[in-house]
Amino acid sequence: MxxxxxxxxxxxxxxxxxxxxxxxxxxxxxxxxxxxxxxxxIFFLYILAVIFITFFxxxxxxxxxLRDNGKRANIVPIAETLRSLHFEKRYALYNIxxxxxxxxxxxxxxxxLLNSVPSC
Length: 120
Hints:
mainly alpha
C-alpha cells in the first residue's frame, strides 16, 4: 500500500517554489540580466525533465510506500550496465548512450551559468 503522487503535482510545486525564489532574488538584485534569467529558467526546466526521466515511472507518477516491495535503487552507477553487457547488449548500449545524451546539456549549462553569475 502506498501513495501515488502524479508528476504534474510535483512539477507544479517545484515551479511555484522556483517562481517565488526568483521573484525574491530579482527584488534583491538589479544586476540580473534577461539572458541570464532565460538560461537559468531553461536549466531549471531541464533539471525537472531529468528528474522526471530518472525517477518517475512511465505512467507519470511516483509511489511512496513504507513497505519494502522488492524494488531497490541501483546505487552502484556502472555495475548494472556492465552486467547487462553480457546478457542484453541492446539494453546496455541504450542505457549508456541514453545517460550520455541526458547529461550533455548539463555540461553546457553549468559553465554558462557559472560565468554569468552576477557578483554580489
